[in-house]
Amino acid sequence: MLELSRVVKSFGAVVALRSGSLRMQPGSIHALIGENGAGKSTLVKIVAGLYRRDAGEFRLNGEEVDFTSTAQSKSAGIAVIYQEPTLFPDLSVTENVFMGRQPVGRFGRIDRKAMRREVESLFQRLGVRIDPDRPAEGLSIADQQVIEIAKAVSLDARVLIMDEPTAALSGVEVDRLFAIARSLRDEGRALLFISHRFDEVFDLCDTVTVMRDGSYIATTPIAETTVDELVRQMVGRDVTDLFPKIEAEIGEPLLEVEGLSSAGVFHDISFTVRAGEIVGLAGLVGAGRSEVARAVFGVDGYDSGSVTLEGRPVKKGDPARAMLQGIALVPEDRRKQGLVLESSVARNITLSIRNQLAKAGIITSGFENRAAKVWASRLEVKTTALSTVAATLSGGNQQKVVLGKWLATEPRVLIVDEPTRGIDVGTKAEVHRLLSELAGRGIGILMISSELPEVLGMADRVLVMREGRITAEIDRADATSENVMFAATHAQGAHS
């Protein structure tokens, strides 16, 4: 149905795609995997009409195509469902599905009843319940994705591309999405599923294509490969230790949180992070973990309780003061909260230490580049130049830049919120190694993660939150997937 062969795409001196190849069959779900920067997104954007290829072949139903716009791609029967859908929040669900192609009835007026009937029929066909008349604002990411899928089906798209669709979904929402994907496959459509989660790839997909460094590596039926083999193909080597935990000497308490409460958000939160210790903060999405981190750092306020660092009070609601005292926060959303996307790599890394770089109130690009180069080199940020705009980096390299920005402050306590979300397996191992090395140097680390293997593999102690409360504290030796999940889903967890 869709075939790309030896496709090339460059942006100036940067080659984003050296030799991209992909074959999609009707009635099949095809996985596309690779490290950040492997060329997956560039390939998808060529299919979607956002980019034009420089060389290579692109065929749809056997005929060569060369899209110059997204409209051409859509009219050819291709739909892309992105990780973060872009709906009009003030319009209804029905209006979003029919945006730009509303049916017209008598006297040239929009036939709203026909639109609503069609949307009801689409949702029934997809097996979901969403009110067609409600505004899009406030819908969950999962429901927004379903609306995008309904839009694609109403356009009779034969090729659907799902780019990291499960990154922000709960288990139940993932199950619903997969059920919809399978029903579309059974109708004879071709689906492309892009993900970093191997369990989902093996659960959902029929075939998998691996890319590395902008080039096609291999395509294999899912039943004929293994996770280890795919990892080898993705990174070009064996990743023998995804959780390189270095045993560090755990010292005196650094961060002490006592009785922290915020009405309706979290209640009576108390914990300690010691020098050289990685404390994992686990729990389901919505348990209040990120909110606690933001309150400790001073981004958000709280109603009662106290935060101290090395015995000194940390002022409530004052992140600048928290930084000066030695606390750093790597936020969950690196693009919106961690980076200035339009600025260079050098500018982003030095954002938190600009006062230290200034000489007589002036910061030169030389000062900036020298300071940034240290961290860009230590973290192995893959970029052609420090002047490269942060928005153009892969997700894994953006995460490294955010880490560099905060490590440049030489913190005593580092809070990392979902440090490896959306980044590939090779970069995950690098981030884990870095966290372990930092703990070995006596830094206290509070790591928030929704990935249980990451929590179990890296944490010296696991704190589990449920509905704004800590329900369990479990030592590394006693922590298992079962007891962490039990504490995350039950009101009373067992303290160890």
TrEMBL record:
The superkingdom listed in its UniProt entry is Bacteria
Q: List the Gene Ontology MF annotations in alphabetical order.
A: ATP binding; ATP hydrolysis activity
Q: What is its main location?
A: membrane
Q: Where in the cell is it found?
A: Cell membrane
**Record's bilayer topology term:** Peripheral membrane protein
Q: Quick one: a GO cellular component term?
A: plasma membrane
SUPFAM superfamilies per the record? P-loop containing nucleoside triphosphate hydrolases
Q: Which PANTHER family match?
A: CARBOHYDRATE TRANSPORT ATP-BINDING PROTEIN MG119-RELATED (PTHR43790), D-ALLOSE IMPORT ATP-BINDING PROTEIN ALSA-RELATED (PTHR43790:SF3)
User: Which named protein is this?
Assistant: Sugar ABC transporter ATP-binding protein
